[in-house]
Amino acid sequence: MLGRAYQYANRFDDAVLAFKKFKADAKGTVFNLVDADLQIQHCINAKELMKFPLM
User: Fold this and answer.
1) Residue ranges of the domains in the chain?
2) Distance between CA atoms of 42 and 36, rounded to whole angstroms?
């Protein structure tokens, strides 16, 4: 949940760190661990997209 909160606040580096810590602790279900990988990829994509705003 902390990683998601960082995502919503556009703090993508902090979000990635939170998701990686979640994966390292391995306290979630298999679905949650796979979702953490997906959310990390979303953060990477968002950082890249924010480099080139349309307006």
Assistant:
1) 2-50
2) 10
User: Per residue in 21-43, pLDDT tens?
Assistant: 999 988 778 898 899 999 999 99
Q: Rounded to two decimals, what is the model's pTM?
A: 0.85
User: Scanning the structure block, which residue is given the tokens 């990686």?
Assistant: 20
- Concatenate the DSSP letters of all residues of 1-55 into one string: -HHHHHHHTT-HHHHHHHHHHHHHHT-S-HHHHHHHHHHHHHHHHHHHHHTS---
Distance CA 30, CA 6 (A): 22
Name the residue with tokens 């902390």. 2
